[in-house]
Amino acid sequence: MDSILIVDDETFYIDVLVELLAGQYKVVVAKNGQQALDRIAKGFEPDLVLLDVVMPEMDGYQVCQALKDSPSTCDIPVIFLTVKSDVDSEIYGFDIGAADYIAKPFSLPIVKARVATHLDLSRAKKRLQAHNLLLEAKVIERTQEISRTQDVAIFCMATVAETRDNETGKHLRRTQHYVRLLANYLSQDPKYQEQLTPTYIDLLYKSAPLHDLGKVGVPDSILLKPSKLTPEEWELMKRHASFGLDALEKAEQEYGSSSFLAVAKEIAFGHHEKWDGSGYPLGISGDAIPLSARLMALADCYDALINRRVYKDAFSYESASEIILEGRGRHFEPAIVDAFIALQPQFIEIAQKFADDE
Asked: CA-to-CA distance for 9 and 23, rounded, in angstroms?
């Protein structure tokens, strides 16, 4: 049963309205504005308020304003009962949120009809709001499902490349966490905060596992060779950066460009560039190297140092850190090395959390 709060300081009008509405609705009465607000504050939730305008101490406009200012009561329809029938008064009432006006002395059939109409409108509005919330929840759920599916597909594709040279999916996990850790830290620096937004950092995290996608194009005899590569073998090994770029560009041509693919291409093609220009495949230097690739360069190198490879044993955390520090301004951007130094305990935590199985 719908409930109605009647607020009026005149007993005559209260009696008339109670007699008219009590048989069809739950009716609660308040004889002044503060009493009405107290009724609601104590837990009464009316579906409609019939509110006299002219009352002592707190008039109807003030009561209406208080109701509309509160998130818990702002949607309750308010119908003013008033002897003030001038246009300015009505405009003011509608401006502060009233749903309707009924002039005193009122016609009982009109009161009954308008009450029913506004209750119907209120119920319809609530149903629409509930329906919209349900749709929003379904859209969010579906979007999350699609995102999870994409993440799984990306990770599976990246893992295929990594396992070619006896690395594991945990290398992918470690490096993407390193990259995100560095990016979050540097996002506080004015130089980087415009680019390193939460959305961009999420793109970095998701695209990082594709950094060595191009390894699928390198022969096993090179990837798994335990001894030093010949100059010819090394040149072919370096081509994995271009192979990765080619694969991602083909995906882009087939399915359209996206911010994710743009970042993934930067990382795959550029993460072996060096700050001083001595890297590959282009030999570019400094800020000409995309920030995404500069971050991945350190993350990938650090993880390669502290884990065993077919051609070397693992370095200790201390030795790996010393090598990274020696590369400051040469292999790596100085600011990224400084961030790494500040974050060493977190790097070690990530390395241990996602350690390879023995």
From this structure: 22
